[in-house]
Amino acid sequence: MPQITVLEPLQADQWFVDSPDLREFVATAKDIISSTTHNRAETLNTLEPYFAALLKKENWLPTNFAQPNPDSGLGGGIGQWLLYRSQDRSLTIFSLVIPPDEITPVHDHLSWGLVGLYQGKQEETVYRRVDNGELEGYAYLETVGTYQVKTGDIYHLLPPDNDIHSVKATNVFAPSISIHVMGNDTGSIWRHHYHPQQQSVRSFRSGYSNVLFK
Question: In the chain, N or C: fewer CB atoms in 10 Å?
């Protein structure tokens, strides 16, 4: 099991992409999150149409946040670019750039979240953990389903039953780009990297391609 991650608050909100469209979305997201504290399913459902509108807008994501990263903490040249992080780390937004035909490890997020495909096509395989987690290094996963995701599609992350997946870019010539809106500082915390065939699990931190751990 991953160690409990204690992260110090930041001095201020961090904006790595400063665009009016993103600032408007963050303001709306904060209002929705604060008003739906006790029901995160409601948070996701209420926030989704605003997120869908952001995905449809053009030119708000700079090209340097839409590139693979050869030094990726996720492997396979996968870029995880932090776009925004709130002072208390309770809201992060990042882009995930997967080169053609590459696949993420099977992983969890340990938080509610929305994932929307900004560019390209993906294949998402969703898993459910069915062991009790008491045996260190061991995890037994069942496959829930495999889904084809196209540009503009959005799916929900909501632990414990809807939080483990792997994602493959099915584009031929260009990377797929998804935008993640998460209720934690996903790249900085310790979470799980699963190996379903070996029935094993280890702790990992993915980091961000543009930010050092802190």
Answer: C
What amino acid occupies position 9?
Answer: P
Measure the CA angle with vertex 106, ends 49 and 65; round to 5°.
55
- Ordered by where they begin, the domains of the chain are 14-204 (2.60.120.10)
pTM for this model (two decimals): 0.95
Question: Six-digit token pair at 42?
Answer: 């409601």
Tokens of 186: 């996903």
Q: Which two tokens stand for residue 66?
A: 């839409």
Which one-letter amino acid corresponds to residue 165? H
What one-letter code names the amino acid at 105? P
Q: How far apart are CA 80 and CA 96, in angstroms?
A: 5
Mean pLDDT of 35-63: 97
Residue 51 DSSP SS3: helix
Q: What is the pLDDT of residue 4?
A: 63
